[in-house]
Amino acid sequence: MGHRAVVASVSVSAALAAGCGGTSGSAAKAPPNVTNGVVSMTLDGPVSSYDPTQASTFQDSVALAALYDTLVAFDPSGKLVPGLSDTWKSTPKTATFHLRGGVTCSDGTALTGAMVAASLNRLFDPATKAPLVRQAIGPGNSAKATSTADSVTITMAKAWSDLVPGMTGPFAGIVCPSGMKDPSSLRTKSAGTGAFVSESQVTGSSYTLTRRPQYAWGPAYAAQTAGEPPKKLVLKVVDDENTRANLTSTGELQIPSFTSNAWDRFKSTGGITVRTSPQSDTMLVFNETVGHPTADRGVRLAIAQALDRSVLNKVQSFGSGELISSLGRPSYECFDSGSNALVPKYDAAAAAKALKGVKLQVIGTNILAGGAANDQVMSALQAAGATATVRTMDNQAWVSDLFGGKNDWDVTIFVYGNRLSSFLPVGQFFVHDAPPKGLNIGATNNPEAARAYDQAATGSAEEKCAALTTFQQSLLRNVDVLPLATAPVHVLFAGGTSGSVVNGFAVPASIRVAKAAG
Length: 518
Hints:
Elements (H helix, E strand, L loop, with lengths): L1 H7 L3 H5 L21 E6 L14 H10 L4 E3 L5 E3 L2 E6 L3 E6 L13 H12 L8 H5 L5 E5 L3 E6 L6 H4 L10 H5 L14 E7 L3 E6 L20 E6 L3 H9 L7 E2 L14 E14 L10 H10 L2 H9 L30 H8 L3 E7 L6 H12 L3 E7 L1 H9 L7 E6 L6 H5 L19 H12 L2 H17 L3 E13 L3 E2 L2 E2 L2 E2 L5 E2 L5
Parallel strand pairs: 1-10, 13-14, 13-15
Antiparallel strand pairs: 2-3, 4-5, 5-7, 6-7, 8-9, 9-10, 11-16, 12-15, 12-16, 17-20, 18-19
Helix pairs in contact: 9-11, 10-12, 15-16
Keywords: Signal
GO molecular function: peptide transmembrane transporter activity
GO cellular component, one term: ATP-binding cassette (ABC) transporter complex
């Protein structure tokens, strides 16, 4: 389920709005400044719960980041920075986090090591059914947290080298005793140490959070802007990006995010800061199940040669993405610059020799440019002589198709929001069992890559990078995947607001309102 959450969580209608954005060519009037300390920010959809262990969507992540702290966090550059823990050390099977002092829960209770351990053990407990716990401790693994007065140690049954970055996930937010005593209350009421506490909600529409005036901990970002924290933060569900732009113009929204060009109307507007950040990575995945034409490496290579990745990037993100040469971005740990030489080059003539008359079914999500990228793939394959058809679905239907084991497709653009900035989580989709039992969506059959992945997951830091290089290069040589491009999001700060953006998300604790405007 965890894979579904990460893959499925971007707003569907956001991309549908692409191409019909607001007016451009003339500067829009600056939105009014915030004067009452209340800042509104967009959500892609309803929040499912205030229980961190049940986090399953991008919008859950936004709300939980405001309400709960994690042991460690990422800064805007992708660097791990202290959270509730000020120092830490790890081995392949354990990690010990020293806790900073002076932290309190939203009910005033002082946070202790025992409380942190209890919260983590609830996350690790299979009975909790936490959808994303495998990102923290790895697939098929178990873990236990123990504590001293000022530290917590996590010990896993099997090594997983991404344990520490895994603790940055919203699902790893620390729940305070009031929430632990009555987990059902977390559906609508928060119990954390975060910068905000839940106040009220209109289910499916808006969620009002109140700032905790005593909050003085949490990640410290080098580029933290000046100003006052908002008194209240209102998270509004607005899934149409043109509507987001209209509400921003009238001052009803201060921090909207866009994946389309609907924000273009603000390009020349004063008083608005735009932060563009990669949020998802895209790659072409082939179905290698026996009986599919894409089980043949020659067919996969020809498909890769039929696609001009630069053109596809312009279609899926209006050209704002950057081409990638592996399963993620150069900023990820263990990035291998040598992989670029293994990415097949656009070669229409070579593609045409191999694809003439080959029947191919393309499926995809509509979250990028309303599915136009899927159409572009189909057109390229048809131009190469293949008998290609395309089926674009809403995001949840596409994910259900991939992970339900239907096997009714040959090619898909895989869209993955990699919050951990690590190659291990995304690598799970290319090894071991195929759906519905496992996550290997294309039934990739590459023993060398699978061995290297397992070595990376369990080895030392030095062994991890070497193994990940072998893993990805093996996938590329066998044309099991074609890396495409990043899919950025544009986060606007209007009305005198400012803040930091990490992995495409505005960080609630970093939001400030200019004093002159507040």
